[in-house]
Every structure is written in C-alpha cells, then in structure tokens.
Amino acid sequence: MDSYGDYDPLIIGGKRLSSRFFLGTGRFPSPAVMQMALDASAAEVITFAVRRVNLDFAQDDSILQHIGGRELTYLPNTSGANNADEAVRIARLARAAGLGDWIKVEISASTRTLLPDPLETLQATERLAAEGFVVLSYTSDDPVGCKRLEEAGAAAVMPGGSPIGSGLGILNPYNIGLIVEEAGVPIIVDAGIGSAVDAVQAMELGAAGILVNTPVAKAGDPVAMAHAMRLAVEAGRMAYRAGRIPKRRYASASSEEAGVSVPMKAQTMAANSTTAEGSR
Amino acid sequence: MSSKWKDFRLYVITGVNYHPGRSLMTVMEQTLQGGADIIQLRAKDMTKREVLAQAYALRKLTRHYDVPLIINDHIDIALAVDADGVHLGQDDLPLAEARRILGADRIIGISTHSIEQALRAERDGADYIGVGPVFPTGTKPGRQAVTTSYVQEAAQRIRIPFVAIGGITTSNVNEVLAAGAARICAVSAIVGSDDPAHECRSFLQAIHASDQSKPGQVDLKQIRVNGRAEQTSARHVTELVQQLGLEGKRIVVELNGQILARDAWGEAEIENGATLEMVHFVGGG
C-alpha cells in the first residue's frame, strides 16, 4: 500500500506530501539510529530546533549533516520562545539558514507542562504569516483557539493530544474531532502521542497527519517504532476514509439467520416428532 | 580538497586492539561526536581485504561528519575508497612516489622522529607531519621517545601543520601544548577509553584553553558571542567564523540584533563591544 498516499495527498502551503507522518529529530540514541528511523518512517517533513552553536566544540554539529541527500521539507520550531517576539526572532533566524520558510510556532508558557501559550501563539502566527512564512501552529486542543489560528493565517494547525513527550495519548478525542470538523486547513495532531494506537486514533478522528518525536526516539527500538507509526498513520487514514460503522448497544450478527445448519441428532428428533404428528 | 582540513586540532587514529568487544565503527563514531576532526585508519595486523572493508565503512562515517579520512600506508586503498589522503612512515613509499600516484589534491602526512626528518618532509611536499613519539607508547613499542623538546623545535621551525603524537593523554597533554603544539593526536587514550567522546572533549578543552593562554595579538576586540565574552582580532564576521572553526557550517549569524545574510558576512565589521549570536539546527520535535 505504499502508493496509497499518492491518491490522497496532504497539501500544506502549496506543497504536496504523500506521507502524513511528520517526524521530530530530537533525543535519538545516535545520529545513525535517527537516520534509520527516518528511513523507516518514510516521513517527508522533519522538525528540529534552533540553538546556539557550541563554541567550544564546533564539531557538535548541526543535525543537518546527518540527513543530507534526502528530499525533505524542513520544519524548524520556535521551541525555547516564551512569547511572540522571541518566536518571530527564532523563525527569522531559521529562515536565514536558507532551508525554506516553513515554521512551527511553539511557545510554551510553563516549563513543567510545556503547554502552549494560546495568546502569544496567535500573535506570532499572525505576524509570521504576514511575513510570508508557512506557519504551522502548535496549540492546545481547543476548537475555538484552533479556528482563530486558521483565521490568523496558519497553513496548518497542530493541536496537542496531551503534553509534549508525555505519551498520554489523545486526552480529549471529542475536541480533536470537533477541531477537524470545523477546520479549513489541515489539522496535525502534535504532542502526546505514545504509541501506534494513538496515531491510529488521531487519524480516525480525521486528523490530516501527526507529528511525533519522543515516542519514536525513546522507544526500545526506535527504527521499528518509526515503521509501526508509519503503518498506524496509513491504517488510521484508510479507516477514516473508508468510513466506520456506527456503534450500537447490542450485537448484530454478521450472517443471515436463515439456513443455519442443524446437527444430525436434532434433525432425527425433529423428523420423529413430524412423523408422530403426521400419524396422528 | 579545500585547505579547511588544516584547521584540525584533534587527530584520532584507529586501534581496534584497544577496544575489544566494541566495534570500530561504534568507537570511531563516538570520537567524531566528541569532536575528532581528522581520522586515520591504521590496521597493521589485518589482511588487505579487511583493511579495505573498514576503509569503506570509515569513509561513509567520516563523510557524514565532514571529517577527512587518512589511510595509513595503503595508497591503493586510499584511492579505492576515495580517502582524503595517506599517512606514511619513514620506511614506506617515498613521498615523491606517493605524490605522483595520489596527485596534488590528496593529503600526505609523514611520521617524523627528528627535526631533520621534519624539514625534509616539509621540503619534499608533505601536507602535514607527525611529531613523535613524544612519550613512550604501546602503539610503537621500542621506539625512543622524542620528548617535548622536539615538539618545541618543530613549533619553531616547521611551517606546515604538525601534529604531536605518542603516549599523549589528558594528563600530559598540557605539557605538549605548552611546548608549542597546536594539534594533538591520540590513539589508546581515546579509543581505549570507556567514553571516547568525553575523552575527545577533554582533549579539545585543553587545546582551546591553551590557545587562550598563548600570547595574544595586538588590537583584540572585546565582543560577546552567544552570551559569552570573547576576544578577537577578526575584522568582519567571515573572519570571526573562521577563527571559531565554524567555516563551512550551516550557521546563522546575528550581529547586534540584525540577522546577516551569508553573503553580507564579509562586509559586516566587528567593532569593540559587538554582540553576536550564532545558531544552528539541532534535534527537536
């Protein structure tokens, strides 16, 4: 089913993507594992962060040297920003690297929960969209907030299922469902996914894609988990498009009741009783 | 090959016998992560086919890290795997022959054990020389140590890059640096350690600390880079980036709050009191 995505592309900022699985590049055990996981994921969009160069060890090098030679869309994030001004500055720095104009707005208000600051996120989205960035805004799973980000110019909105790296899954599937229903731009579930089951759930709720980092990078076998997530995203998406059955309270047999085969003993008894009746 | 390789500070040579139970690739990747900026494959007790296989694997690895790969002795293997150069001993193929085979662009390094050998290698067109063994070493048993006095002599008289080698560890490296070495090579101290990356960082820390204690040049400007006070003689951003060893890396520079396009670095003058931010991309979600 590798070609499946070709018939159901995801389009963000005019770019056509056949993979709906966005992969983060942080916290992998080694660059080699990260690359293998990237291959296994078939992801076309990868995220990373902007940080100061370590002047003592110039060789503690950029993540980019490990992913060369692949056709990828780079999605730098603004992590570390505490307000819109800082996020805008980081976005401009990222763009100056010359790797495109996609930016994931990520503004955390609390170091403990890393939950996004919706007001600053909205402001940053508006300003960056006006500067010509393709803005993907990471935010809470609040349907109204997500709609506001879309109106502010976000090319995609990325509600979290639960806090970053928590692996708690989608805590409010009802909200994610509502967000998807009302959205005019792709909804990417970002943050909180713990395992393949959460990826399937996000996709069956109608998400256009998911962004995952920690559950792959910190899995027992990151490469296998990357593959599992990829399959989960594909499975979830296909199931969503296929249309699931409505839920019902009681059983509904999957075969006709007529024509049930009956054991010999029961048949003999039935025949006897018929004879008895007939001779009466 | 551009001349960027000449900026190397920490030269690491393979030594599989120092890390039984750990693969060569694992250990060498750790040294690269720790900041080794030139790698030599030395495998004296292996068949040529084994060396070739390891050379291919190391070539792939060093390309990822954009670090030059040097092959000890085997010119044919260096050519086969497209290594950046070879390293030859005093008894190997003469430099002129090696140069004829390898061409002008590949790096040729020569081991030297006296200032006479060093001067000859320089004159004959070596790209760099090894100076050692500074201390007695298990890697070259039986060879008389040349001590730091030869390092001092080399520092005064040799113009091509020279790298001090032989028995150097983090506990005696300062002596070697004080004698005038700017580049250090280690084998057992690094690849034989439980944490090669950490060991490399310790060496580099000593090397960078020694840079700062050496007599400064005139007209040093006080600047701040990434929040840290630095002194520099750099006239513009391009020079500063070179001085920091960040040349050729995909970094973004902000000077006094203004993001600079890369082609504006050469005109962006650095004045006393300048504040710079240099950022790059790291793993993230």
Automatic annotation (TrEMBL), chain A:
<feature type="domain" description="Thiazole synthase ThiG">
    <location>
        <begin position="12"/>
        <end position="255"/>
    </location>
</feature>
<keyword id="KW-0808">Transferase</keyword>
<comment type="subunit">
    <text>Homotetramer. Forms heterodimers with either ThiH or ThiS.</text>
</comment>
<dbReference type="InterPro" id="IPR033983">
    <property type="entry name" value="Thiazole_synthase_ThiG"/>
</dbReference>
<feature type="active site" description="Schiff-base intermediate with DXP">
    <location>
        <position position="104"/>
    </location>
</feature>
<dbReference type="Pfam" id="PF05690">
    <property type="entry name" value="ThiG"/>
</dbReference>
<dbReference type="InterPro" id="IPR013785">
    <property type="entry name" value="Aldolase_TIM"/>
</dbReference>
<protein>
    <recommendedName>
        <fullName>Thiazole synthase</fullName>
        <ecNumber>2.8.1.10</ecNumber>
    </recommendedName>
</protein>
<comment type="pathway">
    <text>Cofactor biosynthesis; thiamine diphosphate biosynthesis.</text>
</comment>
<feature type="binding site">
    <location>
        <begin position="191"/>
        <end position="192"/>
    </location>
    <ligand>
        <name>1-deoxy-D-xylulose 5-phosphate</name>
    </ligand>
</feature>
<dbReference type="GO" id="GO:1990107">
    <property type="term" value="F:thiazole synthase activity"/>
</dbReference>
<comment type="similarity">
    <text>Belongs to the ThiG family.</text>
</comment>
<feature type="binding site">
    <location>
        <position position="165"/>
    </location>
    <ligand>
        <name>1-deoxy-D-xylulose 5-phosphate</name>
    </ligand>
</feature>
<keyword id="KW-0963">Cytoplasm</keyword>
<keyword id="KW-0784">Thiamine biosynthesis</keyword>
<comment type="function">
    <text>Catalyzes the rearrangement of 1-deoxy-D-xylulose 5-phosphate (DXP) to produce the thiazole phosphate moiety of thiamine. Sulfur is provided by the thiocarboxylate moiety of the carrier protein ThiS. In vitro, sulfur can be provided by H(2)S.</text>
</comment>
<dbReference type="InterPro" id="IPR008867">
    <property type="entry name" value="ThiG"/>
</dbReference>
<keyword id="KW-0704">Schiff base</keyword>
<feature type="binding site">
    <location>
        <begin position="213"/>
        <end position="214"/>
    </location>
    <ligand>
        <name>1-deoxy-D-xylulose 5-phosphate</name>
    </ligand>
</feature>
UniProtKB/TrEMBL annotation, chain B:
<dbReference type="Pfam" id="PF02597">
    <property type="entry name" value="ThiS"/>
</dbReference>
<dbReference type="GO" id="GO:0004789">
    <property type="term" value="F:thiamine-phosphate diphosphorylase activity"/>
</dbReference>
<feature type="binding site">
    <location>
        <position position="111"/>
    </location>
    <ligand>
        <name>4-amino-2-methyl-5-(diphosphooxymethyl)pyrimidine</name>
    </ligand>
</feature>
<comment type="function">
    <text>Condenses 4-methyl-5-(beta-hydroxyethyl)thiazole monophosphate (THZ-P) and 2-methyl-4-amino-5-hydroxymethyl pyrimidine pyrophosphate (HMP-PP) to form thiamine monophosphate (TMP).</text>
</comment>
<dbReference type="InterPro" id="IPR034291">
    <property type="entry name" value="TMP_synthase"/>
</dbReference>
<feature type="binding site">
    <location>
        <position position="92"/>
    </location>
    <ligand>
        <name>Mg(2+)</name>
    </ligand>
</feature>
<feature type="binding site">
    <location>
        <position position="167"/>
    </location>
    <ligand>
        <name>2-[(2R,5Z)-2-carboxy-4-methylthiazol-5(2H)-ylidene]ethyl phosphate</name>
    </ligand>
</feature>
<dbReference type="Pfam" id="PF02581">
    <property type="entry name" value="TMP-TENI"/>
</dbReference>
<keyword id="KW-0479">Metal-binding</keyword>
<feature type="domain" description="Thiamine phosphate synthase/TenI">
    <location>
        <begin position="10"/>
        <end position="190"/>
    </location>
</feature>
<protein>
    <recommendedName>
        <fullName>Thiamine-phosphate synthase</fullName>
        <ecNumber>2.5.1.3</ecNumber>
    </recommendedName>
</protein>
<dbReference type="InterPro" id="IPR016155">
    <property type="entry name" value="Mopterin_synth/thiamin_S_b"/>
</dbReference>
<feature type="binding site">
    <location>
        <position position="140"/>
    </location>
    <ligand>
        <name>4-amino-2-methyl-5-(diphosphooxymethyl)pyrimidine</name>
    </ligand>
</feature>
<comment type="pathway">
    <text>Cofactor biosynthesis; thiamine diphosphate biosynthesis; thiamine phosphate from 4-amino-2-methyl-5-diphosphomethylpyrimidine and 4-methyl-5-(2-phosphoethyl)-thiazole: step 1/1.</text>
</comment>
<dbReference type="InterPro" id="IPR036206">
    <property type="entry name" value="ThiamineP_synth_sf"/>
</dbReference>
<dbReference type="InterPro" id="IPR003749">
    <property type="entry name" value="ThiS/MoaD-like"/>
</dbReference>
<dbReference type="InterPro" id="IPR013785">
    <property type="entry name" value="Aldolase_TIM"/>
</dbReference>
<comment type="similarity">
    <text>Belongs to the thiamine-phosphate synthase family.</text>
</comment>
<feature type="binding site">
    <location>
        <begin position="137"/>
        <end position="139"/>
    </location>
    <ligand>
        <name>2-[(2R,5Z)-2-carboxy-4-methylthiazol-5(2H)-ylidene]ethyl phosphate</name>
    </ligand>
</feature>
<feature type="binding site">
    <location>
        <begin position="40"/>
        <end position="44"/>
    </location>
    <ligand>
        <name>4-amino-2-methyl-5-(diphosphooxymethyl)pyrimidine</name>
    </ligand>
</feature>
<dbReference type="InterPro" id="IPR022998">
    <property type="entry name" value="ThiamineP_synth_TenI"/>
</dbReference>
<keyword id="KW-0784">Thiamine biosynthesis</keyword>
